[in-house]
Amino acid sequence: MKDDEMKRYLKIGITGAAILASGILCAFVLFKMPVIISVLKGITEILKPFLYGVVFAYLLAPLCNKIEEKLFQIFPKAKTKVRRFICFIAIVISLCVAIAVIWLIIMMIIPQVWDSVMKIIQMVPQKLIVVNNWIEHMLENQPELQAYFEEFSSQAESNIDSLLNVDTIQKVQSIINSLSVQLFGVLGVVKNIFLGLLISAYLLGSRKLFGAQAGLILHGVFSDKWAKIIEEEIRYTDKMFNGFLVGKIIDSAIIGLLCFAGTSIMGFEAPAFISVIIGITNIIPFFGPFIGAIPCGLLLLLENPMHCLYFIIFIFVLQQLDGNVIGPKILGNTTGVSSFWVLFAILLFGGMWGVVGMVIGVPLFAVIYDIIRKLVYRGLRKHKRESMIADYEEKYHKS
Prior knowledge:
The protein is an all-alpha fold. Among the domains are: 1-37; 46-158 and 187-205, no CATH class. Helix content is 89%, strand content 0%. It has helices spanning 2-31, 33-46, 48-74, 80-138, 143-165, 168-205, 207-221, 224-265, 271-281, 288-303, 305-330, 339-382, 386-396. Helix 3 packs across helix 4, helix 8 packs antiparallel against helix 9 and helix 9 (271-281) runs antiparallel to helix 10. The protein starts with a helix and ends with a helix.
């Protein structure tokens, strides 16, 4: 009896100590949150090339597997050394495809951006003259408004003059420093992409070894039951991310090609640049088309307002085609979550991680949704409520 009481009190004491320790840890995290975030940012910055490598390897793995499969079909009786060489060839081809795509996108965007910026610089003075003449024409019969406009113009000119005359050297130095930071940022991204591609080659070459090691660790740490559950969830996560991201990339590539064909036929300025922007931003669910269409529309507005109007109509038609025909054919109902939760995931993870969060938010939320669904179903089965599961599935998830 005393032993039972001791065990009970010991359990209560351990529980209380655990709760107290958790409270202290939470308080420490809250008070030291800026320091923790700063440390995490520093670690993330150091590991960026590895993160790039993991992303590249994950995206290239299906292509690499497909190439390996085709080559093994050509050489079915290949020995170990030949099989290793085939794996090496598959990795090289996959990396060449990735480099070619990245290079093509860069070469399509940079010259078009430069040309557009130069055109805007040349166009702005002319447009300002046109706007000024239009305002003067409108104010010819409005002396009070004309006087107010002239006063406003002279005040604006004096403000601009004062800005240019006061601390001009400091302002120029500030602009140069800002440009230097931006340049180093771009060089940092290029460096991370290069190192990421290099790391992805090693990851692709050792992917089967890493998979086997992960399996050993999983079964060594957890029981067979939990190891099986975790393996199933990992497979589901891979299915969600792979199916969604690869499908979205294919879908966006098709949209980009259709956009290029349409803008070229209609004679818009910089069709390649517009199509690349529309294609890349289309990867972002829901908000992507708007994010891409706004800068492209403004660019066309400066060149020709009617082209901007035609472009908006064209993008609307293209997105309807994507949403009702192309997207469902390629993606289907990949994630299995409703439109409401898709919007929720984009806003939540987009707010947390920016553009990256908007891209990965939907498949990540689909995984979280699946885990919660399985836990709820497990609880219902534990309480002998299988009929509720059957009714719910019949009513809301009947295919």
